[in-house]
Every structure is written in C-alpha cells, then in structure tokens.
TrEMBL record:
Assigned protein family: Belongs to the Glu/Leu/Phe/Val dehydrogenases family.
SMART domains (UniProt xref): ELFV_dehydrog (SM00839)
Keywords: NAD, Nucleotide-binding, Oxidoreductase
Residues annotated to bind NAD(+): T194, N225
UniProt binding sites for substrate: K74, K98, S354
Catalytic residues (positions): K110
Protein name: Glutamate dehydrogenase
Coiled coil region boundaries: none
Length: 421
C-alpha cells in the first residue's frame, strides 16, 4: 500500500499494520487497499484564544473523515497534549471498522486539539471549544460528520459545540453532535454507554471461557468516563475491583477497592490522587498484577512488547482505543489462556448509543433508559456473536475476526457503489 506523507506516527502505523494483516486475509488487491484505508479528507485548523491573563495562544486542531460510503462520518473529539494528525487519522480509521462491525450507517471520523484541557480555566475551555467548532463549520454537518466526546471532552463541551453550530445556523440543530447533556437533546444512557457496553461484553466473554463473573477480580486503568462506569458496572455484577489508576496515581488492594467512594472522590476533585494514603501502587506495574479481568480504559499502546508476556489476566477487555500494539498482539496470539475483547468491539457501546441519540434527535422522539439499554445490548450481542462465529470458523484471533468483519463491510459497500465519476 502506498505510504502517505501527512499521516505518520506510531498510532497510525498500528492502524496500518492491523489493516494490512486483515487485507491479506481478505485478499484485497493493492489499489483497493489504498482506497479503503486512506482517509477521505482532513482539515487542520489553528484556534487562537485569549487566555485569562490577556495573552493569545494558538492551538492546533484536526478533523479526519475516513470514509463517508455508508453514511455520515462519526467520531469523537479528543483534547489532549500529544494529539497529532496521524493519531487522529488512526482513530478515525478504527471508528470506520467499529461502526461497520456494529452495523451502523456511518463512516468513521475523529477530531482533536493538541491541548491539556486541565490546564485551562473553564472560560478558556469554553472559548477553545467554541472556536474549534467555529473552524469546523464548513466541514461538518448532521448528515456529513457528527461529533461526540472522547478523551478530555465531555457533555459540557458537546453542549458548546451544539450551541456554536446552532447559532451559526439560526436554529437549534441537536443532531450535529452526540454525547450532549440530556437537558440539551442528549439521550439517557449515553454517558454510561461505553462503560456499560464494556461490562456487558466482559460478562459474555466470561460465559464463553467458563469464568464465574461473581467473585472474579478486575483491574481498570483510566478512571474517566469509560473506566469509572466500567468499574461501577462490574462491581454491580459481583466483580471485585482490586486495582485502578489514572494519570495521577494508582491504587491496588487484593481484598478489593471501594469503587463508589473512588468515583465520588473523582467527581469532587477530578483525579484519583488524594483519595487515600493507603493502597498507593506503582502505576507502571498495575497492568501485570494478577486479576481475572484487565480493562485498559485510558490511552494507546499500554500493552506492548515489554509487558504482554507478563499479563496475568484471563480476559483483556480493550475499553480504550488501540491499547495493544501489534508486537503485543503477536505475543498474545501465543497465549490462548487470555481472551481478548478487541477495542472495536469492546468500546462500541459509545458509538451505538450515539447513533441512538442521533436517531432520536432527528425524529424528535425520545426513548426511556430501558429501551436504550435493551437496544444497546441487542446490538452488542449481534456483534459479539458475529465475531465469535468467525473466531471458531476460521481460527482467527478476536482482533482479526472483528477487524475483518468491519473492513469487509466497508469494502463491499464501496464495491457496490462503484467508483465515481
Ligand atoms: P476521559 O478523559 O474521560 O478519561 C481518561 C482517563 O484516562 C482519565 O482518568 C485519565 O486520568 C486517564 N489517563 C490518562 N493518561 C493515563 C495514563 N498514562 N495512565 C493511566 N491513566 C491515564 O476519557 P474517556 O472518554 O474515558 O476515554 C478513555 C478511552 O476510551 C480513550 O481511549 C477513548 O478513545 C476511549 N473511548 C471513549 C469513548 C467514550 O464514549 N468516551 C468511546 C469509545 C472509546
């Protein structure tokens, strides 16, 4: 496949390697590979904002639309210091395979701004959010590209995005973003959807491998939207959460941590740090501690060639996007005792309920939480079974099975639409 000049970096290379593996399996001819893999279009923007001290700082932002073959592009917006166009492109590509695997009428997209949102005041964060959306106006739309939250953004940021877009349109356009507050046309159950979906699939994987979920143990890396909800839901299922971490610190207690208290502390202070003087643990060692269920729910490439052979879990539930490098994948292929729930399946609950939110906004007809959760479980179940069937039928790894379903659906849609003009 042809190399690209603007998409570079380790995360993009991960997406490329994963795709090449699956493209070989599906026997996709070389020119078609480039057509399917390379992003359709990308916008890079400068976002100048005035800080509270009067200085003007320019932040670099991106939006990548990987493909629009199956419908509007769909994907989150990340505010994090190291965001670059290669990482955003990889995340957009993964969104494509994820939406196709879940059977959603979307292509993949992703956006990001290179900024540490925690270093901004509330006013600075609002100004940056609004400026970023303002710069995106010619590029996005409810039937072109629909944004959502990701790392470093939340319901409030989505409300500012929606308001900025709507003020420019002269009318309220709820369906321009998902993951909004329920007060602003969001859906019940969206904030919790990704973590709940992760927990549902862990339950299914436990059944598959004969692990009794009640009384099992879990370690969760990342205690933001996804990690905290996953931890709370797992605990409600009878799982003992023995380890958690965020970017500030890690806690580990083989007897179990009080997840509700941890969550209350994070809600109050924003971070795990300061929760307790007891149970503090070396964050770099947390992932390799013994547990039944390991849930990376933070950043990319944390399971790599250095630690994959040291994992002591039975289920690796990839709540984050891209937590496992191809080197680690190669090691895990020789460790069949670890059941991997690959990211594009594991964290799909977020985009599935985002899709429900978009449908409700378009119809102006809102569902209750039972309906949202029932439909979420039904959609995840369909994907889980499709992946499980392929694992059995073709003796594939779970990642290759999930990716090949997603890639093949995009491939088929492109082939049947034909080449324009
Ligand atoms: P978030 O910003 O709410 O939380 C991120 C968490 O990760 C925080 O607790 C942060 O402290 C922690 N973290 C950051 N760097 C860390 C490090 N080096 N070690 C340990 N912890 C670290 O973000 P989120 O929305 O929960 O997203 C987490 C992951 O899930 C990302 O990979 C994201 O792409 C993925 N994801 C999110 C959604 C969603 O609906 N929010 C959907 C699908 C996938």
């Amino acid at each position: 496949m042809e190399a690209s000049s603007i998409y570079t970096g380790p995360v993009f290379e991960m997406a490329r390697k994963q795709f090449e593996t699956v493209a070989d399996m599906l026997d996709i001819p070389a020119p078609e590979r480039t057509r399917i893999f390379m992003p359709k279009r990308t916008l890079a923007v400068s976002c100048p904002i005035q800080h509270d001290d009067g200085s003007v700082v320019v932040y670099q932002g991106y939006r990548v639309q990987h493909h629009l073959t199956l419908g509007p592009a769909k994907g989150g917006t990340r505010f994090a210091p190291n965001v670059d166009v290669g990482e955003v492109a990889a995340l957009a590509i993964w969104m494509s395979w994820k939406c196709a695997l879940a059977g959603l009428p979307y292509g993949g997209a992703k956006g990001g701004v290179a900024v540490d949102p925690r270093a901004l005041s509330p006013r600075e964060l609002e100004t940056l959010s609004r400026r970023y959306m303002q710069e995106m106006l010619p590029f996005v739309g409810p039937h072109t590209d629909v944004m959502a939250p990701d790392m470093g953004t939340n319901e409030q940021v989505m409300a500012w995005f929606m308001d900025t877009y709507s003020m420019n349109q002269g009318k309220t356009v709820l369906e321009i973003v998902t993951g909004k507050p329920v007060d602003n046309g969001g859906t019940v159950g969206r904030r919790e959807a990704t973590g709940r979906g992760v927990a549902y699939l862990i339950g299914r994987a436990a059944e598959t491998i004969g692990l009794k979920i009640n009384g099992s143990t879990a370690i969760v890396q990342g205690f933001g939207n996804v990690g905290s909800v996953a931890a709370v839901t797992l605990q409600a299922m009878g799982v003992t959460v023995v380890g958690v971490s965020d970017h500030t610190c890690a806690y580990y207690d083989p007897k179990g941590l009080d997840v509700a208290k941890l969550e209350a502390h994070v809600r109050r202070t924003g971070v795990l740090e300061g929760y307790s003087k007891e149970g503090l643990f070396d964050a770099s060692e947390l992932l390799v501690q013994p547990c039944d269920i390991l849930v990376p729910a933070a950043i990319e490439r944390v399971i790599n060639g250095k630690n994959a052979d040291k994992l002591q879990c039975r289920i690796l539930a990839e709540a984050a996007n891209g937590p496992t490098t191809p080197e680690a994948d190669a090691i895990l292929r020789n460790r069949p005792e670890i059941y991997v729930i690959p990211d594009i399946l594991c964290n799909a609950g977020g985009v599935i309920v985002s899709y429900f939110e978009w449908v409700q906004d378009l119809q102006q007809l809102f569902w209750d939480e039972t309906e949202v959760n029932d439909r979420l479980h039904k959609t995840l179940e369909r994907s889980y079974q499709a992946v499980s069937t392929l694992i059995e039928k073709r003796s594939l790894s779970a990642r290759d099975a999930a990716l090949s379903i997603g890639v093949e659906r995009v491939l088929n849609a492109k082939r049947k639409r034909g080449l324009f003009p």
